[in-house]
Amino acid sequence: MKKWIAFVGLASALTLFAFSPPADRYFEIAKNLDIFATLFKEVNALYVDDVNPNKLVRTGIDAMLNSLDPYTNYIPEDEVEDYRTMNTGQYGGIGAVTREIGKRTVVTMMYEGYPAFKGGLKIGDQVIKMDEVELSKITTEEANHLMRGQVGTTVSLTVKRYGVKDPIRIEFKREKIKVSNVPYFGMIADNVGYVQLSDFTPDAGKEVKNAIVTLKEKGAKSIVLDLRNNPGGLLFEAVNICNIFIPKGKQVVTTKGKIPEHNINYETLNPPVDLEIPVAVLINRGSASASEIVAGTLQDYDRAVIIGEKSYGKGLVQLSRPLSYNAQIKITTAKYYTPTGRCIQVLDYTHRRDDGSVGSIPDSIKKVFKTTRGRTVYDGGGIDPDVKIETHEASTITQVLYSNGYIFDYGTIYASKHPTIPEAKAFSLTDAEYTEFASWIKTKDYNYRSPIEIRLSQLTEEAKVERFYDDLKPQIDQIQIRLADSRKNDLITFKDQLKLLVEEDIVARYYLERGQVEVSFKQDEEIKASIDVLNNPAQYKKILSL
């Protein structure tokens, strides 16, 4: 909304006067706040339609903070609990995860040992009522608030279950739900232990430590630490995890900000678990913040081989501060630096372009740093893996069938027909079962265009504008025919992708999150690469000595 350009102007003004004498700067702040207050008063009084003051001000606040960076956020009172849950991994609820598929709210996962699991809820159940409130008449946000609540209180769910004629009503007593930072750990080869770390909420370091101690007791001679798609979290938990593998008193990360008290050097505080055990750390473009601290620190000390793809590149630190009326603000207060001095922040929010867009740190100004053993590493662009693995994007048909819920629904149908299946690591759809799935999919209504079809359509429109279309039409028609023929075989061409997703959804019904992880191992190129590296001591040593 154009009227809120004033907010962006306010943010710009505050930046311009950041280097002015204090008295001048405070005057400009007061002046702009006064302008905003009078502007809001006039808009509220005179605008042709009624305005919602909460919505209007929230729009302005968000626009102002977005002009800084994506991580400086306003958190109103009604969102504080969700924010606290995200940072602590704890909430009062029943331990069920739901997803919106079309107009349905379906249960997609349950945490073992919590009320939903113990009370008989099943993955695939469609929740139609919650405490007699029909979900079709409320928003997803309102439904989430209904599901969660004070520990010890009750909530009833009315669900439709596949294969059962009448709705089922189940009552649960809410408990304190603690979502584990380590959803899975186990042996992935005779002597290779695997730890999946999904978050950095409180006790992440303790959970990883306990997992590694247990794996060593089971015979693990090397460790894979999986940080893929881990968005980060608490910085001191990253320090605790590094401390498992490096000595006490070692620098892990340094933060530097505008205010001196934000300039902090974080060192390991405890004796390590194991200084010698070979370690492979898996990262991808979804590994950010605290994940990058762990990967970057272990890389700087040549303590682990980093495998996968370049990480996200978030080198900014946030701090929460209380505001009036129980609201909060999360503010970027510092940048963090790995032991070699690297800041891996990839986007330069400090120097925006004239149009407000943000660019990556140019390669020309990236600095060279040296690890403990003299290997070359760089700043300004995430963590580069020591062993790069090319990733394969999900095909268009895979994305469409997943987003439409067809893969999930087929998992429900399959589970209703099979009381048991083999253990997750051994489970696989037969060719006949996949053919049955493909036949079922063909009865569904799904339309999509592949990226090449979209580009061809754009080319056609541009050719018409430039008056080349008549000349190009024969070739365009021929390509369209070939693409249409090719699409008919998509269920076969992308069988590996689709088959794995179906298997993961099926296995979840029997073995929950652990099963989904285990069944994915057979197509996991990063896992295979890590086992190869860890089982080849000469290669492992060579990588860390280059």
Structural class: alpha+beta
Helicity, as a percent range: 40-55%
- Strand order, sheet with most strands: 10-11-12-15-16-21
Strand content: 15-25%
Which superfamily, in CATH terms, is the homologous superfamily of the largest domain? Answer: 2-enoyl-CoA Hydratase, Chain A, domain 1
CATH fold annotation of the largest domain:
2-enoyl-CoA Hydratase, Chain A, domain 1
Please, what is the average pLDDT? 91
User: Do you know the CATH architecture of the largest domain?
Assistant: Alpha-Beta Complex
User: What best-fitting shape do the alpha-carbon axes yield?
Assistant: globular
Distance, first to last CA:
54 Å
Low-confidence stretches: 1-19
Radius of gyration: 27 Å
| Major sheet summary line | 6 strands, mixed
Number of strands: 21
CATH class of the largest domain: Alpha Beta
What's the number of helices?
A: 18
TL;DR?
This protein is of the alpha+beta class and 546 residues long. The chain has 4 domains: 2-67; 90-178, PDZ domain (Pdz3 Domain); 184-391, 2-enoyl-CoA Hydratase, Chain A, domain 1 (Alpha-Beta Complex); 394-546, no CATH class. The chain is built from 18 helices and 21 strands.
Question: How would the blueprint of this fold be written?
Answer:
Layout: H1 5-16, H2 22-46, H3 53-66, E1 73-75, H4 77-88, E2 90-93, E3 96-101, E4 104-110, H5 115-118, E5 126-130, E6 133-134, H6 140-147, E7 154-160, E8 168-173, E9 175-178, E10 184-189, E11 192-196, H7 204-217, E12 222-226, H8 235-243, E13 251-257, E14 264-267, E15 279-283, H9 290-300, E16 305-308, E17 316-322, E18 328-337, E19 368-370, E20 376-378, E21 387-388, H10 396-403, H11 406-417, H12 431-441, H13 451-465, H14 469-487, H15 490-493, H16 495-520, H17 525-534, H18 537-543
Parallel strand pairs: 11-12, 12-15, 15-16, 16-21
Antiparallel strand pairs: 1-18, 2-9, 3-4, 5-6, 5-7, 7-8, 10-11, 13-14, 13-18, 17-18, 19-20
Helix pairs in contact: 1-2, 1-3, 7-8, 8-9, 11-16, 13-14
